[in-house]
Design brief:
This protein is of the alpha/beta class. It folds into two domains: 118 residues, Rossmann fold (3-Layer(aba) Sandwich); 71 residues, no CATH class. It is 52% helix and 13% strand. It is built from nine helices and five strands; from the N terminus they run βαβααααββαααβα.
């Protein structure tokens, strides 16, 4: 079983790429951001430590951690932010490794994908056999974000400004999938890479 990290800038179309892979290859796909949210639910690994750190007032009446309340506590407080990250990131990696071990023991999964916007920054590359960069031209990404999410030009510019430059993605990733054009063209690239591993759909 091969572990592949998937990353790329906002609007590059990672979800679309992963949807195709999920439906056509024997694989398991972990979305790191979704897993982080899951681990913050009552009874999960990050729930009690986050409340101990930030206080009971970050929870709602149902006991769930409120995203807005947690964000308010962290905003402008670099110490809190660092401590929250130090709680969440190791827990996410630990759970990914646990699920990967289960998938490998199962024997039916040939590909284990980990998707994260901050895959490189948060050290996920250390648990991947290789990294894929889902690339799309900036103009294409901007158009997608305005069309699909209704983002303003200013919001898109602000988000893109906080992400790694293209050169860093390319430097850290072994495979580049150009998702600037049609889905059919992206699929051709994906199949070409995976068929090189002599795996069949």
């Amino acid at each position: 079983m091969k572990t592949i990290g998937i990353t790329g800038g906002v609007g590059s179309g990672k979800s679309e790429i992963l949807s195709y892979i999920r439906n056509n290859y024997p694989c398991e796909i972990i979305l790191a951001d979704d897993l982080a949210k899951e681990l913050q639910k009552p009874g999960q690994a990050c729930y009690a430590p986050l409340i101990d750190l930030l206080g009971e007032d970050i929870t709602g009446e149902d006991g769930q951690i409120l995203k807005t309340a947690m964000a308010d506590k962290i905003f402008g407080n670099s110490d809190f932010l660092a401590k929250v990250n130090a709680l969440i990131h190791p827990a996410v990696i630990s759970e990914i490794l646990r699920r990967r071990d289960l998938a490998e023991k199962n024997g039916e999964i040939r590909l284990f994908f980990i998707e994260a916007a901050l895959l490189i920054e948060n050290g996920f590359d250390k648990i991947c056999d290789e990294m894929w960069y889902i690339y799309a031209k900036e103009s294409v990404r901007r158009e997608r974000l305005m069309r699909s999410r209704g983002y303003s030009v200013e919001k898109i510019t602000a988000i893109m400004g906080k992400q790694l430059p293209e050169s860093e993605f390319r430097r850290n990733c072994q495979t580049v999938i150009d998702n600037s054009g049609s889905l059919a063209e992206s699929i051709r690239q994906i199949d070409q890479v995976l068929e090189a591993y002599q795996w069949q759909k």
